[in-house]
């Protein structure tokens, strides 16, 4: 089944070229089914690139998904045309009285900024608090995961001395957890962050199910018992060249970044990188949509209630 997106969204052409079934609004309006309503709060600067990456992963599902894009505020963007934002993105005021099956909050390039210094921190807190009453399951990605842990568990910001960048091996835990259905015992996933997610720290200070960890990168995947809050500390949505572009950007800004580990063949940036995490990324999003959203959400979103959710798989 397809994802439903606006007719003129740039991602539609990219996804069609990749043979991904995209249903435009004009066609979807004639179908008599109840699609999942998924909201994406896009905090990344290059919004067109990021929305395409997430839509690609959401498309690998038998469910029809109605996507809406949300921006954090109305400040001008340096990396995304104003026309694109005005045409395809909504302000929070336009959706706050509605319920959604799922919410994805993307990462943001704020790894070295304290929460209280993030210009939209209070607004983000308001959206995350709203999600408790209006969203079946929220997926926090990378920086958003640290922000979510601050809001839900009051955990302070924990920052690494050096940026964690590269593709890392992970081991799964709780192998029968629905989010891990179909996962191999070990898998690869990219990271690009300064945040520190130690398994020991999260075990001591939260009641989260820690589902996947790396000896180097720490916790990769964790979930609340009721699966209404899922934390992904890496970037399963990244394209093959995303880490490369970040590395070149940081070099250009004089930051002297380390070469992303286990990314370039022979660790040589002159060699084109090979994506080794696509299958895991698609499976993770399919599992989230199925077990955390579709299996949990009420058929009538107007009947949204905390009583709909259980801690059972």
Automatic annotation (TrEMBL):
Site location (Important for acyl-CoA specificity): 111
GO cellular-component term (any): cytoplasm
EC number: 2.3.1.46
Molecular-function annotations in GO: homoserine O-acetyltransferase activity; homoserine O-succinyltransferase activity
Location of this chain's protein in the cell: Cytoplasm
Keyword Magnesium (UniProt): no
Transmembrane segments: none
Uppermost EC category: transferase
Site label Important for substrate specificity, positions: 192
Active site annotation, chain numbering: 142 (acyl-thioester intermediate), 235 (proton acceptor), 237
Pathway note: Amino-acid biosynthesis; L-methionine biosynthesis via de novo pathway; O-succinyl-L-homoserine from L-homoserine: step 1/1
UniProt keyword list: Acyltransferase, Amino-acid biosynthesis, Cytoplasm, Methionine biosynthesis, Transferase
UniProt KW Transit peptide keyword: no
Family under the similarity heading: Belongs to the MetA family.
Cited function: Transfers a succinyl group from succinyl-CoA to L-homoserine, forming succinyl-L-homoserine.
Name of this chain's protein: Homoserine O-succinyltransferase
